[in-house]
Amino acid sequence: MFTGIVEEIGMVGEVRERGGILTLSIEAENLVSFLSPGDSISVDGVCLTVREVSPPFFRVDVSSLTRENTTLKKVVRGRRVNLERALTLDKPLGGHLVTGHVDGKGVILEKRGKEEFILGISYPSRIEPYLVEKGSLAVDGVSLTIQKLEKGRVQFIIVPHTASSTTLGEKKVGEEVNLEVDYFARYLRKWFEERESKDTLRKVLEEW
After folding, report:
1. Residue 188 — φ and ψ, nearest 5°?
2. Cα–Cα distance for residue pair 112/18, rounded to 1 Å
3. Full domain range(s) for residue 29
4. Cβ pair 110, 26 in contact under 8 A
5. Which pLDDT belongs to residue 207?
6. CATH number, domain containing residue 52
7. Residues 130-162 pLDDT 10s
8. Are residues 160 and 127 in the same domain?
9. Of 29, 115, 126, 25, which is closest to residue 78 (Cα–Cα)?
10. Number of structural domains the chain divides into
11. pLDDT tens by residue, 104-117
12. pTM for the predicted model, two decimal places
């Protein structure tokens, strides 16, 4: 579990593939001293397990399924990535609860402004039921508040601090990003759907 508050921008070093598994070596000068093998870490919003630590680098494995469903499919040496360690009980919850399980990929459609800018991103139709204006959405592991919601498109206002402390300030129109819907929205919808289906079944039985 994470908060969506990026702790460091890391740099991808070695990228190695073997037997369908992709191994990434990531440089993280600040966070690496706090990591141990087996720890969970969010890399551009994807929850991965630390395989090895060799300061200033740590290594993680990316499964074929994770590659297919996230932007890590196109990862290359030199790519800058958002990093966050797993949430602990003594850590402030500054963003919102993020699991690191990506729900889909979006594409940056608009980036307008300088220090503070508008960021417009497309989203897959399957996550639309979980989106609401002023609600939360994690973009490449960054907790953001939806300012405007349109069919197939969400819009955010990115403040200077977020732009400089995450990779969002470097992103360009046309680039893909990882999206994860709000943790509670997912379960609330499931609960309401199940309740509705049970109520419908009960009414049918009563009429029958």
Report:
1. -65, -40
2. 41
3. 8-85
4. no
5. 61
6. 2.40.30.20
7. 999 999 999 999 999 999 999 999 999 999 999
8. yes
9. 25
10. 2
11. 999 999 999 988 99
12. 0.89
